[in-house]
Amino acid sequence: MGTPMTPQNLLDNPLTTEKCTVGCPIIDRCLGGGIPCNSITELVAESGSGKTQFCLQLTLSAQLPSSHGGLSASSLYLHTEFPFPMRRLHQLSHTFRPSNNHNPCDYIFVQSVHSVDQLLDIMPKIESFIKNSSNSRFPIRLIVIDSIAALFRSDFDNTMDDLKKRSFLFFKISGMLKAMAVGFGLAVLVTNQVVDLMEPNEGVNGLRVGNLGCLYSSGRPICPALGIAWANCVNSRLFLSRNEDFVIQKNQMVNGGVGGSGSEDFVCRRTRRSLHVVFAPHLADTSCEFEITREGIFGVER
Amino acid sequence: MEVSKLPISATQRGKLISAGYTSLSSICSASSSDISRGTQTAWDMLQEEQESLARITTSCADLDNILGGGIGCREVTEIGGVPGIGKTQLGIQLAINVQIPVEFGGLGGKAIYIDTEGSFMVERALQIAGACVEDMLEYTRFLRNDCQVKTQPKDILENIFYFRICSYTEQSAVINYLDKFVSEHKDVKVVIIDSIAFHFRHGFVDLALRTRVLSGIALKLMNLAKKFSLAVVLLNQVTTKYTEGSFQLCLALGFRKVKRMISPSPWEMLLGSQLRFPLEVKSSYLPKTVRSTLTNLAKFIIIFIT
């Protein structure tokens, strides 16, 4: 870190914050170039919405050279919930292969974290690990924590004391991550779970956070887990939603020629996924739809 | 007899010595008029107040209205709100609007931006600066006067002194350093701290110590605002407090509840002019009408043009 006593000249650095591409031009356009460096971006979604897919894809696209929107960097993946989805990463790595003599999986470092204390313990190690990597060909420029909520939702009771302790830890972890993000120019992506809303009004206790009045996924009103204290700890928040759509297709192809006798309609179930910017200092209220395929997450233009 | 040997408490001794009273005789010879130094006539105060009427526009007429014309110089203003409501946007806007030249009704000053959270985005600042320059161009065209708009968006960015802070020690250090920095850069007219709370919400186990450190910071900022007649804007986070069976929004760091600022719909910023700091100076020079609308709401939108 430079000397904090002298102000930075804003013109010394490039006039846009460096971003790490997500690996799809449509989503990148929605996010103003990708996930920004030097700050924490949070990805909120219910399970099965594509959070982990998004994270995996980001670790791969971070290895792309800057001419392709990447950071030409390795990444550190801290997973807390499931075993690391190695097979899916391998599958995705065929799409995002920067060059032939380069196995993308070699540049993704994985660490499992099971408790908040463990996370705090390994923070200094992470820092020295990143510092050591900074002279290599692919320095670490991306940290993914998937998911932060899993750490906090199990270990703490719903009592005043525990909640106080919990939000103290939020700020501590976020402070450490932000300091590292500034020090090493890292992009930090953190995923978060959602909770169902039981009350009819917007948000928890009628509190609306960000652009969307109420977040809906699978037709239910939801809100991000960990409350307003955690929301204060992140710089940007993105939300992935999924909604089942029933599309009725007239079944004319099959029976049309026969004379229309008993033409039955197909009912197709289709999942519409979309990404919304809940809040971000550099982004307007935007959203885009996306699909998850074998090859990865891709935006869909409508 | 030496003051240091007097049977009084250590803090009182310290205060006496730092005020220059080292011996008993020097205390005896002090007259009441010496002690009450810094008296001012009402006329002087009026002059000062008229000077302090310089205000930084927020670029939003409604907001300016409830603030009595904008963010006032010689004041500490605190702005709180839920995440994503636009505190940082307002902060960046003020850092740019303070630079509007005097010919255009601005202050033509410079800005210090102390970023503790990392939400200051250069591209967003450049966008707002571009919009500000465009506004000025339109203004000249409208008035058909000779004011030339010479500023470029990049010049505006050059006049923002940006500090990125990663811990509360750094934050205290920078605030201590501000006095020296501003005396070297007299044209600084606004100091924005985004946010005052973040680093103080972790790292302190002793809450009494935290309060003392914060009070010290608050005092320094108020002195700074008075001494250099500049505006200090503190952006603050909000938190929820459980009182009387329901959750209520209040500003972080637990100084005082800002109940009156909370309307039934919490989708709003909490704006308070010197709301809760120890040396509380109410905005008593605002005419009654303005003051009574302080509790009212101003609607604002944030526009992104790329």
From TrEMBL, chain A:
Keyword Membrane part of the UniProt annotation: yes
Keyword Kinase carried by entry: no
Entry keywords, A to Z: ATP-binding, DNA damage, DNA repair, Membrane, Nucleotide-binding, Nucleus, Transmembrane, Transmembrane helix
Residue stretches making up the RecA family profile domain: 16-194
TM ranges: 169-190
Gene Ontology biological process terms, A to Z: double-strand break repair via synthesis-dependent strand annealing; resolution of mitotic recombination intermediates; t-circle formation; telomere maintenance via recombination
Domain of life the protein comes from: Eukaryota
GO MF annotations in UniProt: ATP binding; ATP-dependent DNA damage sensor activity; four-way junction DNA binding
UniProt-listed PROSITE patterns: RECA_2
Descriptive protein name: RecA family profile 1 domain-containing protein
Species this protein is from: Citrus x changshan-huyou
UniProtKB/TrEMBL annotation, chain B:
Database matches in PROSITE patterns: RECA_2
Record-level Gene Ontology MF annotations: ATP binding; ATP-dependent DNA damage sensor activity; crossover junction DNA endonuclease activity; four-way junction DNA binding
Domain named RecA family profile: residues: 52-238
Keywords: ATP-binding, DNA damage, DNA repair, Nucleotide-binding, Nucleus
Membrane-crossing residue ranges in chain numbering: none
Compartment annotation: Nucleus
InterPro entries named among the record's database cross-references: DNA_recomb/repair_RecA-like (IPR016467), HR_Repair_Mediator (IPR052093), P-loop_NTPase (IPR027417), Rad51_C (IPR013632), RecA_ATP-bd (IPR020588)
GO cellular component, one term: replication fork
N-terminal signal peptide: none
Coiled-coil ranges from the UniProt annotation: none
Domain of life: Eukaryota
GO biological process: meiotic DNA recombinase assembly; reciprocal meiotic recombination
Protein name in the entry: DNA repair protein RAD51 homolog 3
Protein species of origin: Citrus x changshan-huyou
